[in-house]
Amino acid sequence: MAIIRGHRFEIDFDQAFPQGLVLVGEVSPDNEYQSREDKAAGRPTRQRVDEITGKRQWKGTVTDPSEKNAKRASFEVTFLADVQPVPTTAEALPGMRPVELDGLTAEPKVAGQGEFKYQSYVYRATGFKSAASGGGAKAARSTSESTPKAA
Fold it and tell me: How far apart are CA 54 and CA 47, in angstroms?
């Protein structure tokens, strides 16, 4: 049995991004291309809708601190939601905030050009995990695993 093209694999956030992600900037609508003629005619821009879920698409640029190749460290995540997802964590630096994604899926794709092609992924999420379950839970989990429990 073959896996169909475009299959989205559900993946745990901690497994995909062991050091977490940093959201750079804000989440914005993923709009369809609008030609000059459309703009001149005053036609409104239309936001893309996911063909599988029927949800509106939003885009956010993230950086993966665990990626060794600088050119591949930053990429876009597509959010599938009826309303604009809002990060629940505070900014670490102006315009940058650590985030954890909820409902994460990965779709394999080939990226690059010519002889420099490589395996990449299209990441989609349904939103952000709450700040309470963010880095604090990860830190608490790692300290509880490293300390021996009393009987």
Answer: 12
pTM exceeds 0.90, yes or no: no
d(C-alpha 35, C-alpha 139), whole Å: 48
Contacts of 15 (CB under 8 A, 6+ apart): none
The continuous run of DSSP H or E covering 27 comes out as strand 21-29
CA atoms of 102 and 84, how far apart (whole Å): 14
- The rounded distance, in Å, linking the Cα atoms of 145 and 21 is 22
For 111-134, how does the pLDDT look when each residue is reduced to its tens digit (9 = 90+)?
Answer: 989 999 989 999 999 999 986 544
Two structure tokens written together for 108: 């394999």
d(CA 98, CA 139): 14
Q: How many helices (H) and strands (E) does the chain have?
A: 4, 9
